[in-house]
Amino acid sequence: MKLLITGSNGQLGSEIRVLSASYKSLNFIFKDLPDLDICNLKELQNFITKNKITGVINCAAYTAVDKAEEDEGIAKNVNSKGVSNIVKALQKVNGKLIHISTDYVFNGDHFLPYKESDPVSPIGVYGATKRAGELAVINSAIDSIVIRTSWLYSSYGNNFVKTMLRLGNEKESLEVISDQVGTPTYARDLAKTCLEILCRDSSNEISENGKLYHYSNDGVASWYDFAKEIMTLGEMNCKVHPIQTKDYPTLAKRPQYSVLNKSKIKTDFDIEIPYWRDSLKECIEKIKS
Ligand SMILES: NC(=O)c1ccc[n+]([C@@H]2O[C@H](COP(=O)([O-])OP(=O)(O)OC[C@H]3O[C@@H](n4cnc5c(N)ncnc54)[C@H](OP(=O)(O)O)[C@@H]3O)[C@@H](O)[C@H]2O)c1
Fold it and tell me: Is 104 a residue of the active site?
């Protein structure tokens, strides 16, 4: 398979690049802005056809959740129209697509892990534009799946883990929200899952059991639990104090609860999912090395 990674300089794209050397059956092409803009249909179609691309993992997205509330046009363009463009371009070459979506398609009004079949109801612009992108894939006839993930972090890019490590060195104490619950996900684990799915049996349809999947690390945490564990693993003395969402106002509302049920991806693709604390340890060791 000749595999195009769009948005390849982001967290997930960078992790796929690191793993790519171990996947000899895949021939990778990594592209990001400004070289390849998924919002430019003509450019994208030409690139996919000319380079005989047979598969795409779409890591490109507008991920600034708060900014999206004010920049709805750009968020829509990348997260919805950009995804439709990839679908259109792949239709022409009969290619496969793995597209990544988010736990923010849910409103957080739950107390049990969200299944793929649970109704969506995004509470912010980012979630709504990502939902529109999901629909472009789900309603298409191409061999494609959408993987929803949550609380992504990596040694690459900007994320909660890197912010906490920085603040932990600068401050004696921090306040972190304890009444929003989800699961952190190491982008390396998600990258591996995407590549395993594509390599499993390239003659099989990846969407033979449906198009929607959930993937995060295993277990449950609040942002406060996550921050405490970062301080422990990072061997920092910074004290973390729990606060409530109402004490930390943000432009975009976040779901209060966004734990994902991963049974379907585990069963359909025979995937083992690491516990979030174990993966966090790996990532922090990498950052510190
Ligand atoms: N981060 C999270 O906590 C989280 C949680 C749940 C789901 N997700 C989803 O997981 C996926 C990967 O997220 P991530 O954290 O790896 O994202 P990321 O680090 O923000 O990377 C996204 C990449 O896409 C690029 N990009 C933006 N617009 C583009 C365009 N028009 N054409 C081509 N590339 C473009 C970005 O470039 P610029 O930096 O130059 O804009 C960036 O390099 C996304 O679909 C995201 O929605 C993320």
Answer: no
- Ligand 1 centroid from CA 85, angstroms: 16
182 CB less than 6 Å from ligand 1?
no
Are the CB atoms for 255 and 181 separated by under 8 Å? no
Pocket test for ligand 1, best of 5, 16, 31, 63 (most atoms within 8 A of CB): 63
In a domain, 246, yes or no: no
Strand pairing partners for 181? 222, 257
**Residue 129 sits in which domain range?**
2-157+186-217+260-274
> Which CATH number is 100's domain given?
3.40.50.720
Flag whether 106 is in a domain.
Answer: yes
Residue from 126, 156, 224, 257 carrying the catalytic annotation: 126
Per-residue pLDDT of the chain (289 residues; tens, 9 = 90+): 999 999 999 999 999 999 999 999 999 999 999 999 999 999 999 999 999 999 999 999 999 999 999 999 999 999 999 999 999 999 999 999 999 999 999 999 999 999 999 999 999 999 999 999 999 999 999 999 999 999 999 999 999 999 999 999 999 999 999 999 999 999 999 999 999 999 987 678 999 999 999 999 999 999 999 999 999 999 999 999 999 999 999 999 999 999 999 999 999 999 999 999 999 999 999 999 9
Instruction: Give the number of domains in the chain.
Output: 1
* 102 falls within a domain: yes
Is residue 43 included in any domain, yes or no? yes
What residues contact residue 217 under an 8 Å CB cut-off, 6+ apart? 183, 184, 185, 186, 189, 273, 274, 275, 276, 279
Ligand 1 neighbour 65 (Cβ under 6 A): no
